[in-house]
Amino acid sequence: MDPLTADEIHRASDLVRKEHDDGDYIFNSITLKEPFKEDVMGYFGYDPTLPKVKEIEREALVVLIDRPSGVVHDITISLTKNTITEWIKKEGQQPTVTPFEMIEAEDAMKRDPLVIEECRKLGITDMNQVFIDPWGIGWSHIKGKRLVQAICYLRTSPDDNQYAHPLDFNPLYDVNTKKVIDIIIAKRRNSQFERPTIPLENHHFLPEHLGEENLRKDLKPIQIIQPEGVSFTLRGKEISWQKWNMHIGFNHREGLVLNNLTYQDMDGSIRPLFYRLSLAEMVVPYANPYEPYNHKMAFDVGEYGMGFLSNSLELGCDCVGSIYYMDAILNDLKGHPWVIPKAICIHEEDAGLLFKHTDYRSGKAHSARSRRLVISHIVTAGNYDYGLYYYFYQDGTIQFDVKATGELNTQVLAKDEDAAPYGTMVAPQVDAQHHQHLFSFRVDPMIDGINNSVSETDVVASEYPVGHPDNMIGNGFKTVTKVFQDTHDAQGVSNLEKHRSWKIINENKIHPYAKQPVGWKIHNPSPPTLLAKPGSIVYERAIFATKNLWVTPYHREQKFPAGYHIYQSDPKENLGIPQYIKEKKSVRNQSIVTWITFGLTHIPRVEDFPIMPVDIVGVSLKPTNFFMGNPGIDIPATNKVSTKSAYASAEANSCCGKTNL
């Protein structure tokens, strides 16, 4: 399950070059082709019903793009046998656009005569002041070209905030031919002006621009120390912490991937929980319905790759405390290894109370503080930055959070235009458009074995009226549960009125106390779904975002809810989830995958500019009737010695033991 090493990337690209030594082409991606779930579970013995596997073939998947034709090749390589085992041409499909292609595109567009002329019309003669964000086109009627739509800005200095100075035109650029093929100028609406002036007022956020004299002076240091070292242990990519054990993976598309998650029960047994967890896709559709902005629908996982966009993290800034880092090894356009140093951060942190109770009779209190393991990476997708955090708690809870920050994507308005109803004016002439961030969290479970099901539970008031013998004072309410049967049935939308929840359960294992299947509850407090209308381009390309839950049978190749090669995907093709559920298949007591949609609908505020404070959304997975009691009950009591706590005042009393009532 380890990501490919630099040597394996070299080996894979060398094998391809020997077979494809003619013409101009680029290596889009070289990544691990993961083995079958059944083989891995059989290898580790996670399910005794599966045959024992002694050896698993290690494979790589190479995606190649011919230039200028744009023909895509999917090539499977056996690293075990050092040979190519499959070579498939993918006509009419486009894979992710890499950072290397984006840099190449920006450089070419800044030298293009059409772009230079449009800048001249706006009064810009120094192209060193122009900065261009290449975006996916969404979908285009122009066939056979690998296009980006470029969103243009001005900088008044090399590290200025360019989103304070948006330009009013978008070049269309063919990545394969390296040519600008068109320029779309945004039309003015309800304005006396044909073209806007470019706002030149600066809106800085970097400390060197703000000035040392304007920074806060009243912050005292907070230090996080672990004098005896960390509580986790690493063996290669395998990590053990408290009673958790898992494998840490990474690829160009999803970035951080976690595999083979197990938990040690109170009796010492190792119980399998989740085979694979990942952020499988996200879509950011914008609300402005006019050209060229109506093609802004970024699929940051499938179109750009969260791994490709990962940051190299900074000790003490991005991660605080006693930190362990892992590098990421990907590939460049020539098929050579490309290393992102310190791409993954691993550390522990205090997480508040785990539990506490005070006996009001004796005054005795018992507290245990919660600690969590954090595995994270941060990506920069153009203007936005996303912190992606997996949290593991001592009570068995898994939490996946996305911290959205960075800079708003902006458009310029004429002096007499209004941003309403599709945006917010965050500065004079600077419009931040309304949009959504919708994420698909892929959960591949193995709750006490390979065969699992998913149940849906609503909490409803009693059907009996007040005064009925079974609801005499009208306070009764109960749960109503159904188990999904097949792919057509297993689709869910959150319902706050009914307190709807879902559980991944193993119906073959019944809890002796609860008399219910053991399971893990899905908690989704951030459940917006896609607002675009059915039939729209983004709706048909992102059907996964129209519901909060889908359940499909496990299939090795079905990892991405919007499809595999989705760049410029035709909305008529309905890739991903629609294909996975097209045929009615059982998802009860099967090897299954659940897809959870969560996110936020972002109506920008002025306070989000010039840089956005983090907006946190996420989901959590909690054991439900799985253990024989609170699995964190054996956490030692907390005291002021262990926490190094001190009083801010001169007073001194005991801590965490006795309370005065």
From TrEMBL:
Pfam families: Cu_amine_oxid, Cu_amine_oxidN2, Cu_amine_oxidN3. Residues 95-189 form the Copper amine oxidase N3-terminal domain. SUPFAM superfamilies: Amine oxidase catalytic domain (SSF49998), Amine oxidase N-terminal region (SSF54416). Coiled coil: none annotated. Topaquinone (TPQ) is generated by copper-dependent autoxidation of a specific tyrosyl residue. It catalyses: a primary methyl amine + O2 + H2O = an aldehyde + H2O2 + NH4(+). Belongs to the copper/topaquinone oxidase family. NCBIfam families: PRK11504.1 (NF008559). Homodimer. This is Amine oxidase. The lineage of its organism: Eukaryota, Fungi, Fungi incertae sedis, Mucoromycota, Mucoromycotina.
